[in-house]
From TrEMBL:
<feature type="domain" description="C2">
    <location>
        <begin position="508"/>
        <end position="625"/>
    </location>
</feature>
<dbReference type="InterPro" id="IPR037724">
    <property type="entry name" value="C2E_Ferlin"/>
</dbReference>
<dbReference type="GO" id="GO:0016020">
    <property type="term" value="C:membrane"/>
</dbReference>
<dbReference type="InterPro" id="IPR037721">
    <property type="entry name" value="Ferlin"/>
</dbReference>
<feature type="domain" description="C2">
    <location>
        <begin position="193"/>
        <end position="310"/>
    </location>
</feature>
<feature type="domain" description="C2">
    <location>
        <begin position="1174"/>
        <end position="1297"/>
    </location>
</feature>
<feature type="domain" description="C2">
    <location>
        <begin position="9"/>
        <end position="137"/>
    </location>
</feature>
<keyword id="KW-0812">Transmembrane</keyword>
<dbReference type="Pfam" id="PF00168">
    <property type="entry name" value="C2"/>
</dbReference>
<dbReference type="InterPro" id="IPR012968">
    <property type="entry name" value="FerIin_dom"/>
</dbReference>
<keyword id="KW-1133">Transmembrane helix</keyword>
<keyword id="KW-0677">Repeat</keyword>
<dbReference type="GO" id="GO:0007009">
    <property type="term" value="P:plasma membrane organization"/>
</dbReference>
<feature type="domain" description="C2">
    <location>
        <begin position="1023"/>
        <end position="1143"/>
    </location>
</feature>
<feature type="transmembrane region" description="Helical">
    <location>
        <begin position="1409"/>
        <end position="1430"/>
    </location>
</feature>
<dbReference type="InterPro" id="IPR000008">
    <property type="entry name" value="C2_dom"/>
</dbReference>
<protein>
    <recommendedName>
        <fullName>C2 domain-containing protein</fullName>
    </recommendedName>
</protein>
Length: 1441
């Protein structure tokens, strides 16, 4: 409770805060879904036939389908590897909150309705609240709600990523789990590892019903203004399922007395149950009146089992329609009370959960919900005054609503924007059905213009009860919220009310003391010390403003002087305002309203409201202090958005003997400013002409106050000379200034400048954009850079570090430790050290002892040999999570490297040179040089851009954006804009690039006295503009030719741009006027294309610096479409000393962004080198990164026999055949083994499947066993899936033939007469013939499967070259070898022996039935034939006897 109070008693200095219940930010959302695998899909109609699965995905009112698979059995493993993208923009959080992702697996029917195999549904909040907003590689248990809610009908493996436009997107790729052949059975039994299955089979999913016991409602909002009533009904929604109550007409206190039932699956994947109240309209659309949320966790824990009243909040009846829906759909944003509802919720067990509603018949329950229990409460408040009212001489009142009860002040006219109420209001002896203050309705405060509310504020009741700290209630300075839903609210005069509240049970002892109107005190004054502001919202089209400040204190108002053409004005002025004799609780707030003063109007730029008591606590307001109070920066807000800061303090004096100084300008000392200008980049002209020759102006007046003289010998402005033409001109100037700046950095101003175009020899100089330089930040950065270099210089002097070309020594500042200045700079600049990446680099041994060890960025491999198999494998292979293999070795190279390693005695070979062509290795054996090297190297792969890591932690250049444009507040028209904030209309017109160094003379003199500074003093000459010994300074004025060598590895998560397929991506590269369009190497239908290509671009630096890498989608008939792009600043890397030292460059991952959206459009992995033209040896020897070309292989498998197959015919026999496939479009089948009576079938049938390696997805070989029928469709018996991914990988990488062996000996009795080929290994005897169990899953889960036979098969993967030289026939046709497939045994043999032939055709079981039938027929025949004789003999004996 204390935490809630603290959160709700928010600082009145802050703006309107978006409510905490909004988990989702409005904006554009992307849902990326990767379908990976399905298993154990059950036939929705029976268990003896195959299905044609198709997956349907529904989300955000969109529907998409996967491809269709045909003829799959219940044990088939299907690999999908299909990506789906859904994108949609939402205007509010509740629209997103109600979204779901529904996955349906269907059995496709050509004619008729598709049958449902299984369904799984998740809501957005479940996914979005996961780590990185991603559900990654999870198995989902599917259910078919149309049949059995409790039975799992299959499993689907998938990944889902839900991201907002401001979130980082997660790359979704197939995990390609490789399972060892010898552990197939173990793998099946442990198919779903812990944490991998969202609803694991050993935790039985339990179908339950959510029971909602709905009693009655009270004081519902009257929606029909003419009739004064409501026709209410409720709608409950959870996990995409809805149920609606009965409609009760013309009743604002309806009595439902219903039990509502909704089926839910536990564990539940939804986070909230949503209840909405609607008003039925016969002739139009039903209107929402309010809503409420219920946490599923509270329902599951039983917290809502007892009937309880829940309050509903909505919007005023005359609110604008769309905004009314928005407010009514957000319980925490409602602007008025809409009633309360009595209900309870619980989960109950049910064998067959279903949606239902029933009248309550249980008497105990009826007694509970009909009981009229209420408790008396009292409400007190003291309304002091209202300030900042819209119009003078208009009448305003304050109305307070507490549930259905209200109280109101009298209506008074405003004078100087103030109404003095000093009115004590009470709501006594009201009854609410609760004794807990946390369950009372919220309190609404309204500013009324006549009978219309124009502004409001809302407080929780539990914030208003007396506490030990506030025994007589809580006082608030309430900044009201303009209610734009009513369309009559003034935007720049929302109203501020001083008020005191107290809520307690009736009979409580606490009482608010009434306060009388204050009288003016001739000895009391408030001194407002206004120093400066910065980052104010620009309101002029040139990106500037002419700010002036109105300071309002009660009925007093004073205005500052006007400062022209700046968003960082300096006033250094003191304003004196008389003060009334206020009580402490009633002391009015200090209001600062900032305007842009134009000739004919004033544009509102922002406001801040300072509460006197809170200012005293924070220290920027003092009482009776004779010195100027130390100021603080206070945020300015523009209706929810931060719009700058103001530096001010206040002195409150009520003692005539105390005098304070009226001069508040801070003391200034001499500073040196050195600006090294590189140039202007990416300039944009929004006029009819392009940018010709741009130049920069620096406004010296912007860093001085109005009452101060020009600083030292500098003029009022500094102008650079227009030189180079075009949008990327080099300036290459060094500006040195000596200026007087504040000694205290808290008063440090911002340096304002502008960029103009030079047209017609200067007759026209149109503005391109404005920029500002934060001198405080630049001063801190200068001191930090000096401290860093001193740190390294000191270690050099101490001998603690040594020069090593493979080590880059870092100052402790880069790791965020050791020097306090680092933390200070981090606070000032917003920089944050990426601890996660630093920890990773430390773990890998790259970052240690404040140094980067480059020998761990790239790792080289060696080979050992598997003598049993004759294949080579890599030794000491780096972790594939962090290192990416580049290049490949042929089998000959592997063999040579293996022999070389043996000659060196197993000594590991390390290649530390940049040159990738020639390797020089010094070994323990003399004369060992010029050894053969591997083409493969493993390179560190970073999950982020290089700029975000310690490899480039420090920025060389300061980048100052150029902006032009304004903020237009007249466009703010909705409550959503007020709550979410207004957006700037400013245009980014380019950037100024250079160094800015700032240091005070005092700091410089202290540094010069330190011995380690002497080693670096030549780099910090602040008094001369000529080039010094710093390498980058010299290179500023000389253009150098360099080659940008770009290595593109791959892209991932590219969204589809085609209607019915994935994108066809290709690359475009731009740098200044140079461009590369690589459309010839486009990759068709792939959202994760792999390129492994190198591109060289020659350019001059300094110059055009932005290397733009674009990914485009190729179209045959329509124009190609941009997918996304990333931009790399080449100059930033070229001039950075650390990047130059980085001889081995890691791979970086960069987001692809489309210019029209802030949503990432995928990622691209790359690394680049900047090679000066003089380094010819490196230019001639690029890195070899190509991957082994794809190669065609053949999977040769022989289906020898099947065993233990159950009979599917009445006579106990089966006509068996086997179907095999890797690709469903290339199925092959054996001949038919007719009349199998013992579950055995002999085939000796060869199948050959072509396959292209490597495969980007899991490679699965599937076999299915069928029983052939003549007059009906063939019966599916069972199937099995064999993962041959590892076999394919070994065959491809080793360029050799690979056979699959197992430790299970194939049976040799009965029809199996061939001996199995074997080989002896350290694991014992391995058999080429593999015995695979075939399984038919008839029940839920793999643990209840049923074995339906065994398959004896041999598998070999061969290369295309070997296959062409040694061809084999299909089946048993010629050429028949490797191995030989003889004629099968155990089949029907022709014979003239009728008994033997009959036995083969009918089988033993049928023969037994036939003989038994013959015996019965003979016995019957004999009985019929002998019956007359026997009967005659009996009659003769009877009559003659």
């Amino acid at each position: 409770m204390a935490d809630k109070k603290k959160q709700q008693q928010q600082e009145e200095l802050e703006p309107i805060v978006q409510q905490e219940s909004l988990q989702f930010k409005p904006g554009e959302y992307l849902v990326h879904i990767l379908l990976q695998q399905t298993r154990a899909l059950q036939n929705p109609n029976d268990n003896e036939s195959t299905i044609d699965p198709l997956i349907q995905i529904e989300t955000m009112d969109q529907k998409k389908f996967s491809s269709q698979k045909k003829g799959t059995g219940s044990n088939s493993t299907l690999v999908w590897n299909e990506h789906f993208y859904f994108k949609r923009s939402f205007s509010n959080g509740w629209q997103i909150q109600s979204q779901h992702v529904k996955i349906s697996v269907l059995d496709h029917k050509v004619f008729g309705r598709n049958a449902v195999v299984g369904i799984y549904e998740l809501d957005f909040s479940t996914i979005y609240m996961m780590d990185n907003h991603v559900l990654l590689h999870k198995w989902l248990g599917l259910i078919n709600p149309e049949k059995d809610f409790n039975k799992i009908t299959g499993y689907l493996k998938m990944s889902i990523n839900v991201v907002h436009e401001s979130d980082k997107q997660t790359t979704l790729i197939m995990d390609n789990e490789i399972k060892e052949r010898g552990k197939i059975e173990e793998t099946k039994n442990n198919l779903f590892a812990e944490g991998e299955l969202l609803l694991p089979p050993h935790i039985q999913t339990k179908g339950q019903q959510l029971k909602i016991t709905l009693g009655r409602a009270s004081n519902l909002m009257k929606m029909d203004s003419m009739l004064g009533s409501i026709d209410p009904y409720l709608l409950f929604e959870i996990g995409g399922q809805e149920i609606q109550t009965d409609l009760i007409k013309n009743q604002n206190a309806p009595n439902w007395e219903l039990n509502l039932f909704l089926p839910v699956m536990t564990p539940c994947q939804s986070e909230y149950l949503i209840m909405r109240l609607f008003d039925y309209d016969m002739g139009g659309k039903d209107e929402i009146a309010g809503s409420q949320l219920f946490k599923i966790s509270e329902i599951l824990s039983g917290q809502l089992q007892q009937p309880k009243w829940y309050h509903i909040y909505g919007a005023h009846i005359d609110a604008e329609s769309d905004q009314r829906v928005y407010l009514c759909s957000h319980p925490d944003l409602g602007t008025c009370y809409a009633g309360r509802i009595l209900l309870s919720m619980e989960l109950v067990d049910s064998e067959l959960p279903k949606k239902d509603k029933q009248k309550i018949t249980d008497q105990k329950t009826l007694e509970k919900i009909r009981a009229d229990v209420s408790y008396q409460w009292s409400f007190q408040c003291m309304v002091y005054f209202a300030l900042n009212l819209p119009v003078d001489d208009d009448s305003y009142s304050i109305k307070i609503k507490w549930g259905e009860h209200e109280c109101k002040t009298s209506s008074e006219k405003a004078k100087n924007g103030v109404v003095e109420y000093y009115k004590y209001l009470t709501i006594d002896n009201v009854r609410f059905p609760t004794k807990e203050i946390s369950e009372l309705p919220d309190v609404f405060i309204y500013l009324m213009d006549g009978d219309k509310p124009i502004c409001f504020k809302r407080y929780k009741s539990y914030n208003l009860n007396p506490t030990a700290e506030h025994p007589e209630g809580h006082h608030f300075t309430v900044t009201l919220i303009p209610d734009k839903s009513l369309k009559n609210t003034p935007m720049d005069h929302p109203g501020i009310v001083k008020i005191k509240f107290l809520i307690q049970p009736t009979g409580g002892q606490a009482k608010i003391q009434q306060v009388v109107k204050p009288q003016r005190d001739a000895n009391s004054f408030l001194y407002v010390n206004l120093f400066q502001a910065h980052d104010l919202a620009p309101t002029d089209m040139d990106g500037l403003a002419d700010p002036v400040v109105d300071i309002l204190f009660y009925d007093q108002k004073q205005t500052t002087v006007l400062i022209n053409d700046t968003t960082a004005p300096i006033w250094n002025t003191q304003l004196k305002m008389p003060v009334y004799k206020f009580e402490n609780d009633s002391f009015p707030p200090i209001i600062l309203k900032i305007f842009d003063q134009d000739k004919v109007s004033r544009d509102f730029m922002g406001q801040l409201t300072i509460d006197y008591q809170k200012g005293l606590k924070k220290g920027f307001i003092t009482k009776n202090q004779s010195t100027i109070t130390k100021p603080q920066w206070i945020d300015v807000y523009l209706y929810g958005s931060k719009a700058g800061q103001v530096l001010l303090s206040c002195n409150y004096i009520d003692n005539a003997t105390i005098k304070i100084p009226n001069q508040i300008s801070p003391p200034r000392i001499k500073h040196f400013i050195k600006i090294k200008l590189l140039g202007l980049r990416n300039l944009k002209s929004f006029g009819p002409l392009p940018v010709t020759k741009a130049f920069a102006k620096f406004n010296i007046q912007s860093i001085r106050a109005k009452d101060e003289p020009l600083s030292l010998n500098n003029g009022s402005e500094i102008i650079t000379q227009p030189k180079d033409a075009g949008p990327n001109p080099n300036i290459t100037s060094i500006i040195c200034l000596e200026v007087n700046l504040p000694e205290d950095d808290a008063f440090m101003p911002k340096f304002i400048g502008s960029v103009h175009d030079y047209i017609l020899k200067g007759l026209m100089q149109p503005l391109i954009g404005q920029f500002s330089i934060d001198l405080k930040l630049q001063k801190l950065k200068t001191l930090k850079q000096i401290e860093e270099k001193k740190d390294i210089a000191k270690r050099v002097l101490n001998g603690t570090i040594q020069v090593d070309q493979n080590i880059i020594h870092l100052p402790s500042l880069d790791l965020g430790v050791g020097i306090k200045m680092g933390a200070l700079l981090s606070m000032a600049s917003g920089e944050q050290f990426n601890e996660e990446i630093n920890n990773l680099l430390t773990q890998l041994g790259i970052l240690r002892n404040n140094s980067i060890h480059m020998d761990q960025i790239i790792k080289y491999i060696e080979y050992d040999k598997n003598e049993e198999e004759g294949t080579f494998f890599e030794v000491d292979k780096p972790d594939s999570k962090y290192y990416l293999p580049l290049g490949y070795d042929t089998q000959t190279q592997k063999s040579q490297l293996y022999v070389q390693r043996k000659k060196l005695g197993g000594q590991q070979i390390q290649n530390k040179s940049l040159n990738q062509v020639e390797l020089q290795i010094k070994s323990s054996q003399q004369g060992q040089q010029g050894l053969i090297k591997s083409n493969v190297h493993y390179r560190l792969c970073l999950p982020c851009p290089l700029e975000d890591t310690v490899f480039m932690q420090q920025k060389v250049f300061d980048i100052f954006p150029l902006r032009k444009g304004s903020i237009n507040l007249r466009e703010v028209e909705s409550m959503a804009e007020i709550i979410l904030g207004v957006k700037e209309n400013q245009l980014n017109t380019g950037k100024l690039k250079g160094w800015v160094e700032v240091i005070s003379q005092q700091d410089l003199e202290k540094l010069q006295a330190q011995p380690e500074f002497k080693l670096i003093k030549n780099e910090y000459d602040f008094t001369s503009g000529k080039s010094d010994t710093n390498l980058t300074d010299k290179e500023l004025v000389v253009k150098n030719q360099v080659t940008i060598r770009l290595y593109i590895i791959d892209c991932s998560n590219l969204p589809p741009k085609d209607q019915d397929s994935m994108s066809d991506p290709y690359l475009k590269i731009r740098l200044g006027k140079e461009s590369i369009d690589d459309v010839e190497n486009k990759i068709t239908d792939n959202c994760n294309p792999q390129y492994y290509r190198r591109y060289d671009i020659t350019t001059e630096l300094p110059g055009a610096s932005e290397l733009t890498i674009q990914v485009w989608d190729y179209d045959d008939f329509m124009p190609d479409e941009l997918i996304g792009q990333t931009v790399i600043d080449i100059e930033e890397r070229y001039f950075q000393q650390r990047f130059r030292q980085l001889k081995q460059i890691p791979i970086e991952t960069r987001q692809l962004i489309h210019p029209s959206s802030s949503m990432p459009q995928g990622q691209i992995r790359l690394f680049l080198e900047i090679i000066p033209s003089k380094q010819t040896s490196i230019l001639k020897n690029p890195w070899f990164i190509e991957q082994r070309p794809k190669a065609k292989h053949f999977i040769r498998c022989v289906v020898w026999d099947v065993l233990d197959v159950p009979s599917h015919d009445d006579e106990g026999s089966s006509d068996l055949y086997v179907v095999g496939y890797v690709d469903q479009n290339q199925k092959q089948k054996t001949d038919t083994h007719f009349r199998s009576f013992n579950g055995k079938g002999s085939f000796n049938w060869r199948m050959v499947f072509p396959i292209e390696l490597p495969q980007l997805q899991q490679c699965v070989l599937t076999f299915q066993i069928f029983d052939k029928d003549i007059f009906t469709s063939d019966d599916f018996i069972s199937d099995c899936s064999i993962d041959i991914t590892e076999l394919c990988r070994r065959a491809f990488e080793n360029e050799t033939n690979i056979k699959m062996y197992s430790q299970t000996e194939p049976p040799s009795d009965g029809i199996l007469k061939q001996d199995a080929q074997t080989k002896q290994t350290n694991k014992g005897i391995l058999y080429e013939k593999n015995v695979i169990q075939t399984i038919n899953t008839e029940k839920a889960g793999y643990k209840s499967n049923q074995q339906n036979g065994k398959l004896v098969v041999s598998i070999e993967i061969v290369s295309e070259q070997f296959h062409n030289k040694n061809p084999v026939g299909l089946g048993r046709s010629q050429p028949n070898h490797s191995p030989v497939c003889p004629e099968p045994t155990g089949r029907i043999e022709w014979t003239w022996n009728p008994c033997k032939m009959l036995n083969q055709l009918l089988g033993p079981k049928a023969i037994r039935y036939l003989l038994l039938a013959i015996c019965f027929m003979f016995a019957g025949y004999m009985l019929v034939m002998l019956f007359p004789i026997i009967t005659g003999n009996l009659m003769t004996r009877i009559f003659t006897g």
